[in-house]
Give the backbone structure.
Amino acid sequence: MGKGLLLTRPAGFNDALTVACRQQGIPSFEAPLIKIVPCSTPLIEPRFAQPEAGQVQIYTSRNAVMFADPVILANARRPEVRVFGVGSATASQLKNLGIDAIAPQKPGSEALLELPFFKQIRNLQVTLVTGLGGRELLETTLRDRGATVVRVACYAREKVIRPDLDQIVSTRGFDHILITSVDLLAGLTANLGGPLISSVTLCVTAPRIASAAVDQGYQRIISAEDASSDRIVSALADIIWSR
């Protein structure tokens, strides 16, 4: 089999990695396995909460910024509101809208929760701008630490059916597959022929994704330190293309 990298993130989220792969001589092919769609009406939990009143805002992805309610974004520009992104890409997206946001050096919910600010948040209202479903780590941990959390889901993830995926992997040689979320892993498993599950190599960006992949029968797994282009390319170059 080949050593090309299959990029599975939604359209528009693979450009930087495509360039990074090209610079390192790594063939890549874009085949999104989920698509992002806006919610017609944001889902607010608790139902009658006022998310615009949050003293702290957390955006869990670039999608959360793209589809956030304009009223919430306007509130983020108030000087007394503290704004956070789960990673530098999310913070940059906010910066493009004129909103200064803090992000952990290493992207991810765990790293965000390690920031000193989140050690003492009792009685603060936190507006969590995110998508439908997904992880509950941020919400649960913040509540455990005494914060009032208002969750605003403004987008949803939908699986993409790829009847040509087996051919792309087995015939065209893109048998190293980037998986940056459990949702993408589910999309891959739904599309990939059973025999290929044990022969492809996954490049995952978090231990929880690696664990889920093992549970689903994947045997060849490379772990990148995080989902940044540099870390992904480094993991691939060091472990696979150097052999």
